[in-house]
Automatic annotation (TrEMBL), chain A:
One of the record's GO cellular component terms: membrane
Organism of derivation: Paractinoplanes ferrugineus
Name of the protein this chain belongs to: FMN-binding domain-containing protein
GO molecular function: FMN binding
Residues covered by region (Disordered): 33-90
Composition bias type Low complexity, residue spans: 41-65
From TrEMBL, chain B:
One of the record's GO molecular function terms: transferase activity
Gene: apbE_1
Reaction catalysis annotation: L-threonyl-[protein] + FAD = FMN-L-threonyl-[protein] + AMP + H(+)
Keywords recorded for this protein, A-Z: FAD, Flavoprotein, Magnesium, Metal-binding, Transferase
Top-rank taxon, per record: Bacteria
Required cofactor(s): Mg(2+)
PANTHER family (UniProt xref): FAD:PROTEIN FMN TRANSFERASE, THIAMINE BIOSYNTHESIS LIPOPROTEIN APBE
EC number: 2.7.1.180
Ubl conjugation as UniProt keyword: no
Protein name: FAD:protein FMN transferase
Amino acid sequence: MRRSTAAAIGTLTGAALIVGVRLSVTPQAPIAAPPAVDLVDSTPSASASKKPGAASSAKPPSSKDSSSKDKADEEAQNGLKTGVFKGKGATNPYGTVQVSIKIQDGKITAADATYPTTGNSATINPNAVAKLKQETLRKQSADVAAVSGATYTSQSYQESLQAALDSAKA
Amino acid sequence: MRHVEQVMGTAVSIELADDRPAPELGALVEDVCAWLHEVDARFSTYRQDSEVSRMRRGLLTVADCSDDLRHVLSACADLWRDTDGYFDAYAGGALDPSGYVKGWSVEVASDRLLAAGCANHYINAGGDIRMRGLHPEGGPWRVGIRHPWEADKVSWVLAVSDGAVATSGTYERGDHVLNPRTGQPARGLRSVTVVGPSLALADAYATAALAMGEPGLNWLAKLSTDGYESAVVTDDGRAFSSANLPAAV
């Protein structure tokens, strides 16, 4: 039974890593999700695709839920014990991600992950990301060795500044 | 020594700045050109007998293909992930890794020049440049970024010694970059330039940002942490650059 729970958590750790990486390219996503141990969201199956934003609705840790008195009787045939289980923290380049799942009647009814709020996670904090700065579009004839531009064809090369440079130095 | 080679559907300008006998430099230029023609023959989607075309027709599997093609496919898969799907070698339906192959082949050519003792050179493949070392007159290479409306003007001048400058834009070949999410031509950005260590990646990043449209501005800003700086001009003529763009003084 431990095995199946561990396997489920392992799978979810992978899913959480994907969510964690996606976070790095989703400026709107909240970074500081509270430690999600017990999850109120209850879906019929594992909702690994749950949006990071929904994590903010997760309740703080509560021992009550994982130790309901008839817990022992609820161990379903597939060996998944009712309760809330935390995965081992997995460290990726952005910090440590920890997943948790809730099991009820032998089914995973909720899954979530905590995201890093310190250390390397600064790189995924949208507020810490430098924006490109706006400036005036300049138009200059400068002394350059080469010109970068949208890929020209062999024909349009003939009219390019690079062609002029090439023929001047040839 | 300077040379211009017509290959891969574009013009490739090569300058070798090392002070070596002309025959030696000439032989190095020949090696570079031979490699670029080999890449064209093996990876072009316009040639029916290329490895890529044979893979498209199902005549070549990943298990049987060359190490080079396997590298290209793997790099395209990594880029698909790293660009949130906006760099997509399958954007047009069938496999077309051209957006990676050109930059990669120039990167390889530059590596080979360095290995042959030519530490000062640049290769400009149709507007995407890999350079190393110093300009013949000393100092870093000065690279202009073409003004997106006036072909004979530049909008930025960069000073780069070792690195790559790649630009993707809509002003040369029209709407050739598709937004893979919509299947429609990319809109919003007219010119995206990425400067960084690898031409293969800089080129792919520039193409991906162009496909993203204006949201690409924020995406590009995040590349700074990996050493890739950027300069962008929007369709309506606004200009943006990242803080550490190596602008020449």
